[in-house]
Amino acid sequence: MVNLVLIGAPGAGKGTQAERLVRDYGLLHISTGDLLRQAIAAGTPLGLKAKEAVGSGELVPDKVVIGLVEETLADKAEAQGFILDGFPRTLEQARALEGLLRKIAEPLHHVVVFDIPIGELAERIAKRVAQSSSSGVQVRSDDNTEALRRRIDDFTRATVVLLPFYEERQVYQGC
Ligand code: AMP
Asked: Among 38, 74, 96, 122, whose Cα sits 20 to 30 Å from the Cα of 87?
């Protein structure tokens, strides 16, 4: 059993690595971005609340995403562990996660940080857009220059606070 947090900028490959871990180790993949996109597509009250922020690449309020993660973690009965992908992104979320895990008596084993040069990210996102377009999959509304700039800035801000937080807890690992 292993419980992981993946931290990486947009386009860093978190989703791809998470898919492999799910396939090879039966972990539960909890991507807050995916959960929010599903809620938006389904038009749920949560989706309506999050739609504008997600579309423009801004962070959704902490309270909303923390509630979402709490609900999803409660369902982890069958899994061999979990991968949190895209959460936490703020210190408040990191502290809330600590509280949630304490409540369900689960440890956090590793926090894996994807260290990809910023210059490479735009190229990877452009590839993702091209792949989606050519295979008839809808392109993400936040895969555009303006939203991407915000998302990369948010990631930079997040790492500044999250890395020391997790270094202190000795669960941090770069890759
Ligand atoms: P992602 O798929 O992880 O790139 O997330 C897509 C978008 O969902 C982000 O740009 C935010 O608008 C929103 N989002 C996902 N996770 C979080 C989070 N932990 N905190 C706040 N907003 C989030």
From this structure: 122
Domain that holds residue 150: 2-174
CA of residue 53 to ligand 1 center, whole Å: 9
Active-site amino acid positions: 14, 89, 128, 140, 151
Q: Which atom of ligand 1 is nearest to the CA of 85?
A: 3
Question: Residue 9, exposed/middle/buried by CB under 10 A (0-12, 13-18, 19+)?
Answer: buried
Name which of 106, 100, 111, 124 is nearest 10 in CA terms: 124
Q: How many structural domains compose the chain? A: 1
Question: What pLDDT, in 10s, does the model give residues 131-167?
Answer: 888 999 988 889 888 998 899 999 999 999 999 999 9
Which ligand 1 atom sits nearest the alpha carbon of residue 151?
Answer: 10
